[in-house]
C-alpha cells in the first residue's frame, strides 16, 4: 500500500476581505474556508426577504433564485463567482458560513441556505421530502430504514446522489437545532487526503458499474448503475455509499467492504463540529462525508437541512 498521507498544507487561495464579507481559513480543517459577514449584511438580507415564506419558496421556483440575487446584490457579483470557485477548487472544494446569531428562525435558515444553493447552481429534487430541500430530525429513537436518522450508529463515509439519475455535484448541510448532543460530529474525507486512493482506482472493480437501489423512505423506485471512480478535469472522483450498493458476487462484496474499511481507517478523515445556524457546502465529487455516533441520551434532538444539486452551466 502507499505511504501514509501527510496532513495537507493550509489552503489559502481565497483568503481575503471584500465589501461586506471576508474569507478566512477554517479553524478545524486545512482544506476548508469559513465565510464571515458583516452583521448588517445578514440583517439587510433578512429584511429584504422578510415577505418570502417557506411555502412560497416551495411553490414558486424562481423565487429561490431571487434570494441568491438578493445576497449577491449586497455583496457584489464576485461573491457568487467566489462561492462556485471554492466549490470547484480541487485543493479545497468546501466552506462553512452562518447567520452568526443574527437570527435563529428556521425560516431564515431555509432562506439563507437556499440563497447559497442557488449561487452554486441548481438544486436537485429531493424525493425524500418532495421538495428542493429536506429537513430531518435525529433523536433518541428511530425506526427508519437507513443510517441517516439513527443516532447511535456510525454513519459511514459516502457521497450523496448515488441512487438517482441526475448529477449531484455539491452538497449543503445546515444545522437548525441541537439539544443534549454529545458526539455526532461531521466526518469528512477529501479524496486527495486518502493514501490508498491510487490502489483502489487502479483495481478493475474501480471502473465497474455497480447497481444502487434506495430504501423505501427515499421515495425512489428505480435502480441506477454507477461506477465507483471516474475522472473529472483529469482528477479522480468517487460515487459510493455502502448502504445502497448491491454487489453481484463475493469478490465484488469483498472489494466494496475493503474500500469502505480503508476510507473509515484513513488518517485523512476528520471529525468537524458544526454550530447551530451554520452550513457547510462541499464538492460531492471528491469529498466524502459521514457522522460520528452520538452518546446515548433520551433527550437528544438535532435538526438539519439538506440541499444537493448541480453546478450551473457556463459558470
Automatic annotation (TrEMBL):
Keyword Iron among record annotations: yes
Single annotated GO MF: 2-oxoglutarate-dependent dioxygenase activity
Keywords: Dioxygenase, Iron, Metal-binding, Oxidoreductase
InterPro entries given in the database record: GlaH, TauD-like_sf
NCBIfam families membership: PRK02963.1 (NF002814)
Matches recorded under Pfam families: CsiD (PF08943)
Keyword Metal-binding: yes
Descriptive protein name: Protein CsiD
Amino acid at each position: 500500500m502507499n505511504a501514509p498521507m501527510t496532513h495537507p498544507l493550509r489552503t489559502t487561495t481565497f483568503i481575503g476581505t471584500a465589501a461586506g464579507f471576508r474569507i478566512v481559513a477554517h479553524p478545524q480543517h486545512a482544506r476548508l474556508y469559513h465565510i464571515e459577514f458583516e452583521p448588517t449584511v445578514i440583517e439587510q438580507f433578512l429584511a429584504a426577504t422578510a415577505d418570502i415564506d417557506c411555502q412560497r419558496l416551495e411553490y414558486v421556483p424562481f423565487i429561490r433564485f431571487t434570494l441568491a440575487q438578493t445576497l449577491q446584490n449586497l455583496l457584489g457579483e464576485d461573491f457568487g463567482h467566489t462561492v462556485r470557485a471554492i466549490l470547484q477548487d480541487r485543493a479545497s472544494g468546501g466552506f462553512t458560513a452562518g447567520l452568526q446569531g443574527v437570527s435563529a428562525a428556521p425560516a431564515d435558515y431555509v432562506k439563507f441556505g437556499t440563497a447559497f444553493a442557488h449561487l452554486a447552481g441548481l438544486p436537485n429534487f429531493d424525493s425524500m421530502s418532495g421538495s428542493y430541500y429536506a429537513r430531518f430530525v435525529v433523536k433518541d429513537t428511530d425506526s427508519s430504514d437507513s443510517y441517516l436518522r439513527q443516532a447511535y450508529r456510525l454513519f459511514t463515509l459516502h457521497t450523496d446522489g448515488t441512487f438517482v439519475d441526475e448529477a449531484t455535484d455539491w452538497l449543503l448541510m445546515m444545522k437548525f437545532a441541537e439539544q443534549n448532543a454529545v458526539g455526532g460530529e461531521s466526518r469528512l474525507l477529501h479524496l486527495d487526503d486518502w493514501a490508498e486512493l491510487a490502489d483502489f482506482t487502479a483495481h478493475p472493480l474501480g471502473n465497474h458499474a455497480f447497481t444502487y437501489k434506495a430504501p423505501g423512505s427515499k421515495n425512489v423506485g428505480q435502480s441506477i448503475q454507477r461506477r465507483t471512480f471516474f475522472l473529472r478535469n483529469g482528477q479522480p472522483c468517487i460515487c459510493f455509499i455502502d448502504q445502497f450498493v448491491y454487489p453481484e458476487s463475493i469478490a465484488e462484496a469483498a472489494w466494496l467492504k475493503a474500500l469502505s474499511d480503508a476510507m473509515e481507517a484513513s488518517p485523512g478523515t476528520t471529525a468537524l463540529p458544526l454550530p447551530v445556524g451554520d452550513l457547510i457546502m462541499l464538492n460531492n465529487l471528491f469529498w466524502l462525508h459521514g457522522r460520528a455516533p452520538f452518546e446515548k441520551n433520551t433527550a437528544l434532538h438535532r435538526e438539519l437541512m439538506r440541499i444537493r444539486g448541480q453546478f450551473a452551466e457556463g459558470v
